[in-house]
Automatic annotation (TrEMBL):
The active site is at residue 213. This is dTDP-4-amino-4,6-dideoxygalactose transaminase. Belongs to the DegT/DnrJ/EryC1 family. The lineage of its organism: Bacteria, Pseudomonadati, Bacteroidota, Flavobacteriia, Flavobacteriales. The keyword Iron-sulfur does not apply. It comes from Robiginitalea myxolifaciens. The modification N6-(pyridoxal phosphate)lysine is found at residue 213. PANTHER family: DTDP-4-AMINO-4,6-DIDEOXYGALACTOSE TRANSAMINASE, TRANSAMINASE. It holds the Pfam family DegT_DnrJ_EryC1. Coiled coil: none annotated. Keywords: Pyridoxal phosphate.
Amino acid sequence: MKFKVIFDSRLTIDQKMNNTVVKASKIWLSSPHMGGTEQHYVQQAFDSNWIAPLGPNVQGFEEAIEDYLSGGVHVAALSSGTGAIHLGLKLLGVGPGDIVLCQSLTFSASANPITYLGGQPVFIDSEKDTWNMSPELLEEAIQHFLSKGKKPKAIIPVHLYGMPYKAEAIRELSLTYGIPVLEDSAEALGSKYHDVPCGTFGDLAVLSFNGNKIITTSGGGALVAHTREHKEKAVFLSTQARDAAPHYQHSEIGFNYRMSNVLAGIGRGQMEVLQARVESRRANHQYYLEHLGKLEGIEFLQEPEGMFSNRWLSCILTPSYEAREKLRLALEAENIESRPLWKPMHLQPVFADCPAFSDGTSEELFQRGLCLPSGSNLDVTDLNRVIAAITKSYTP
Ligand SMILES: *Cc1c(COP(=O)(O)O)cnc(C)c1O
């Protein structure tokens, strides 16, 4: 077990030596995990003075992601996943008053950019076997708006916690009704559905490299496109939409969303260890399953047929809200970070006025679900500490 010596600052030096409080070190939910070569690429950026939102690392990082995802995709590295969603919706033509159908059980960053464009978020509940957007409720929502003569402009499904959404069913609906998909793959780099990598299913897809994600550039994101034109347009908009002129001329409103060449260096190093990170996170999940799966009333989300999750976060379902809170507080008392599942967007105060197609699934998941420490840098001692804390305090 790792211990950290903590001194009480009110004590004198002599007292401190005699009154050392030994507290088990903090176990985080999901912390950054460098591979070792990141600093080499960052150093290259310094050596060549490419300290800018363009340069060889940006290009190298984009190529590494394109190779990994394959399928001939074109990747634009951006300053955040949120910025990528904003640009993605803009490329799909979302504007004031347009309806965008968004998964309700997700992080607020999936939905916030709809409002940046003046669009109207409409939230769709989850299905039980993936925790992601229910194709049935999605179709119900589409038909509802079509019957009112208002065709939705885009669909935002999410591969939550790395578990793929039903990509084929949702693409089918997208094609049937002619509504494009912006795939939120922020949590799912390394996941697959029928052996096809997540991040390649939507008309456009979004990745995130925030500090808590499976790989990180400290902060960053990417837009994945299927045409060179889409990528070039994203890069154009992300670098202030400058027209081809010697002076600064603009015919469109631009954004400052391009990724820094320094941070892209971190990304290049991280791409070299992505596969290992996926394996570690999946091993965490398997270990929890083996040791906690037998507890009465504790459930894990299994991979449905054809799905391969990167297990970004390992989550459990407890029997009730009370049982969930008891566990969360017991872990907190042991200096272990855990977190309830995402609070559904249709229950968020800020989206209280938005229409929702819900059947209670995501609300129940939110009540009963808990995300456990899931970092690829946790060792077996850390995992055993989490398991012991849960086993000790849990009563069904
Ligand atoms: C992290 C995340 C985002 C946003 O990515 P940032 O890079 O943090 O802006 C969007 N959607 C989901 C589901 C996420 O988990």
